[in-house]
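Hallway conversation turned thread

IA: we were arguing at lunch whether anyone had actually written out Glycine zipper family protein end to end. Turns out nobody had. So, for the record, here is the sequence (113 residues) and right after it the structure tokens. Reply here if something looks off.
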Amino acid sequence: MKKALLILSSLMLFACASQGPIVDRAAGFDSVKYQQDLAECEQVSQQVKAKGVGGAVGGAVVGGLLGAISGDAAEGAGVGAILGGASGLADTKDEKTLVVRNCLKGRGYNVLN
């Protein structure tokens, strides 16, 4: 069971990986300026509060309750904590990605993804 949880959590983390924003590099595109703007927008995105801990706690509670029904509350809490934490981290990453995209759009870039 623990091996399955490890594999599942690893897969979830890989699923959260992204390549970053794709911008239209039309005529006149300045890649040096873009890299500077991207770095500044990524810095702005650091203001997003992490949600992994809250998700882990909520997942542990729900998992513990479901585990108690099935007979193993501790295992259910562990599974719930892993899944809830991974979900919270994915939510945080999604929100940071959105902040970066909106920041770049605000600076005049045509963000395609």
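OS: looked through it. Residues 89 and 112 are 24 Å apart (CA to CA).
IA: good, adding that to the notes. Residues 51-113 form one domain.
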